[in-house]
Amino acid sequence: MFEKNATATYEDALEFICDKTLKDVESLAKNDDPKKMIAKTIIAAERLGTMKELAAFAYGKTEGEVHLDVERLTLKKRLLESLKSAERGE
Fold first, then answer.
1. Which class for 52: exposed (0-12), middle (13-18), buried (19 or more C-beta within 10 A)?
2. Which residues neighbour 27 within 8 Å (Cβ) at sequence distance 6 or greater?
3. 7 DSSP assignment
4. Which class for 33: exposed (0-12), middle (13-18), buried (19 or more C-beta within 10 A)?
5. CA-CA distance, 26 to 29, in Å (whole number)?
6. Phi, psi of 51, deg, nearest 5
């Protein structure tokens, strides 16, 4: 996304970080090997921290602001997905 769109908004950056985080969590949930799970968790945490730092720098925000905004968006997406699952009867 960032490579193709040099005018990405702050909301676009948050969306990207949130989607990547949710994909990482989903990937971790499917892993049965504890050693791989630990390694992937460390990599995902480092990547998330780096993305938040870059977004803060690029958009003139603090890392705390970016962190809270990503957490809010992630919670909102997870809640909406849970509601959709409940409606489908899953």
1. buried
2. 40
3. T
4. exposed
5. 5
6. -65, -40
Q: Compute the distance between CA of residue 18 and CA of residue 16 in angstroms, rounded to an integer.
A: 5
- Any idea which residue has 């997406």 for tokens? 77
DSSP string, 18-63: HHHHHHHHHHHHT---HHHHHHHHHHHHHHHHHHHHHHHHHHT--H
Token pair for residue 26?
A: 């989903």
Kindly report, residue by residue over 60-85, the tens digit of the pLDDT.
999 999 999 999 999 999 899 889 88
Phi/psi at 33 (nearest 5 deg)? -85, 115
